[in-house]
């Protein structure tokens, strides 16, 4: 988000911190006559599941922010959670371990059923029942239990967590109909029962999602959205072809880097939105006993050899920026600890680290990646860099399906793997606990007591600006212990034709899609 570098967030510990502007709220009442034809969006980010308890990926969460409703949401241009399904929310007491929301009493799902506090509790409970490797469970590590009293929902936390309002404003907070979803199993298929600004009129996995304005919606969104068709493409080249053939009105993630590098502002009938985003890419190590990367010195050797500027230039045509910290540039707490350790590839340091590890060279290991867009070229260049001085022998393992790739890295079938990360909410905690904390979303089996103490300390700080030094200390330890190697960060590039307005508000790097901001000019 453009203003992230100057964010200073404060969460009150003893008072209700957010409240609805008006009890009545807003109700969308679109007319079939004035909606116009559907705006067509092209993307390569397919959804892995329409069930919010079982998916934790950018494609799925982009849909959730439109077809489901959470107690809180982030309005366009804001970094403060505001009520959506809730009438009000806030911490109770001074320890940041109890968060309470009062649900609005006038809400219904799109199917007509009234939304109750029991539905909210049900939605969180089914996530808590899952293993850490399933869905967004790893995001809710501080949540112990949820209780209900009348219209009030209380979230009981295991430790102080000032970021918790952001977490329930994300896809993890999606409220589902307890009569339509199983408490213990994923809901398969293409049917969605939510209460967001849109309904899912039709869905064909990996092909198309037809979203239509929900006339029953009441919440934070104040204006009627247009009908939206989301078209999914296998590759960035396919997305480029669809754009150039005018098959779509707008593109969002991911056009080919070589095309992005040649974009020229001011081109006729093309609107280009280049937005600061917080998407990062990491090489993650499996640190289990049987892995080659159980030894920290072997991990350090890899970090010493990676040439990030070469990746950015040769693979991505400088449309990405080299990253030397798990927290990206533009987010509070960012520093450059990996650069400080090795500002450029250092073969001498790598050899010394492997000698310290007492391993025979070249060290053979598997590097997994999801075969999409530039991932293969990226993996091949990393292999070349690591093998250049005969210190490593890298076997590349490509997976053509995202779900298969995700299942394999969670099952520890790779020694290392490359994977991207899109922020769930605008706070450095989202680049800490989910990536390098205990039971992290990468399922890397990594755990570091020093990092755990700093995660707990920073989560408990209501003044987010006061956490900068602790986050820097945490990232210095990450660079020392190397559970992952940050590779690059990138911006969001959104192209729209001259007929569509509002594309600059579609996304702000938080993983939310604000489809209701799009309109015909």
TrEMBL record:
**Protein name according to UniProt:** Peptide-binding protein
User: Pfam families in the record, alphabetically?
Assistant: SBP_bac_5
Q: Which UniProt keywords apply?
A: Membrane, Signal, Transmembrane, Transmembrane helix, Transport
> Where is it located?
Cell envelope
Per the record, its GO cellular-component terms are: ATP-binding cassette (ABC) transporter complex; cell envelope; periplasmic space
The reply on keyword Signal is yes
Q: Which organism is it from?
A: Streptomyces finlayi
One annotated GO molecular function is: peptide transmembrane transporter activity
PANTHER family on file: PERIPLASMIC BINDING COMPONENT OF ABC TRANSPORTER, PERIPLASMIC OLIGOPEPTIDE-BINDING PROTEIN-RELATED
Instruction: Show where the Solute-binding protein family domain sits.
Output: 81-442
- The membrane-spanning stretches of this chain are 7-29
> What family is it from?
Belongs to the bacterial solute-binding protein 5 family.
Q: Name one GO biological process term.
A: peptide transport
């Amino acid at each position: 988000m453009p203003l992230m570098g100057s964010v200073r967030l404060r969460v009150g510990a003893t008072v209700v911190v957010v409240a609805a502007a008006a009890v009545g709220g807003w109700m969308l009442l679109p007319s079939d006559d004035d909606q116009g034809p559907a705006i067509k969006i092209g993307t390569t980010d397919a959804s892995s599941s329409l069930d919010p308890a079982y998916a934790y990926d950018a494609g799925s969460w982009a849909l959730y922010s439109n077809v489901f409703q959470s107690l809180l949401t982030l309005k366009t241009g804001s970094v403060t959670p505001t009520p959506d399904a809730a009438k009000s929310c806030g911490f109770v007491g001074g320890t940041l371990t109890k968060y309470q929301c009062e649900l609005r009493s006038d809400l219904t799902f799109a199917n007509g059923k009234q939304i109750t506090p029991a539905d909210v509790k049900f939605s969180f409970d089914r996530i808590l029942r899952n293993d850490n490797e399933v869905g967004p469970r790893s995001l809710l590590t501080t949540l112990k239990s949820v209780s209900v009293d009348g219209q009030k929902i209380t979230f009981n936390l295991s430790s102080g967590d000032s970021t918790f309002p952001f977490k329930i404003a994300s896809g993890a907070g999606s409220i589902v109909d307890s009569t339509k979803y199983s408490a213990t199993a994923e809901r398969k298929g293409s049917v969605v029962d939510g209460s967001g600004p849109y309904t899912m009129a039709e869905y064909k996995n990996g092909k198309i999602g037809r979203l239509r304005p929900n006339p029953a919606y009441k919440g934070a969104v104040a204006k009627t959205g247009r009908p939206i068709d989301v078209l999914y493409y296998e590759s960035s080249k396919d997305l480029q072809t669809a754009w150039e053939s005018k098959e779509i009105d707008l593109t969002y993630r991911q056009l080919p880097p070589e095309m992005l590098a040649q974009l020229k502002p001011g081109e006729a009938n093309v609107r280009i939105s280049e937005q600061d985003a917080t998407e990062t890419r990491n090489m993650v190590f499996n640190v289990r006993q049987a892995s080659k990367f159980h030894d920290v010195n072997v991990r350090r050797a890899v970090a010493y050899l990676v040439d990030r500027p070469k990746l950015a230039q040769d693979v991505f045509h400088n449309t990405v920026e080299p990253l030397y910290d798990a927290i990206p540039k533009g987010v509070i707490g960012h520093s450059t600890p990996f650069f400080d350790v090795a500002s450029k590839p250092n073969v001498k340091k790598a050899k010394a680290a492997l000698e310290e590890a007492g391993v025979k060279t070249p060290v053979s290991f598997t590097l997994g990646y999801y075969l999409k867009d530039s991932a293969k070229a990226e993996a091949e260049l990393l292999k070349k860099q690591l093998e250049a001085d005969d210190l490593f022998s890298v076997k590349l393992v490509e997976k053509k399906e995202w779900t298969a790739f995700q299942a394999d890295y969670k099952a520890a079938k790779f020694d290392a793997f490359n994977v991207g990360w899109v922020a769930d909410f605008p706070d450095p905690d989202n680049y800490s606990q989910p990536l390098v904390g205990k039971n992290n979303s990468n399922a890397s089996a990594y755990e570091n007591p020093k990092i755990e103490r700093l995660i707990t300390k920073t989560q408990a700080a209501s003044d987010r600006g006061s956490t900068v030094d602790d986050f820097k200390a945490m990232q210095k330890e990450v660079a020392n212990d190397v559970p992952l190697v940050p590779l690059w960060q990138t911006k969001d590039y959104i192209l729209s034709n001259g007929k569509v307005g509002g594309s600059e508000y579609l996304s702000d790097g938080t993983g939310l899609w604000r489809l209701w901001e799009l309109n015909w000019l």
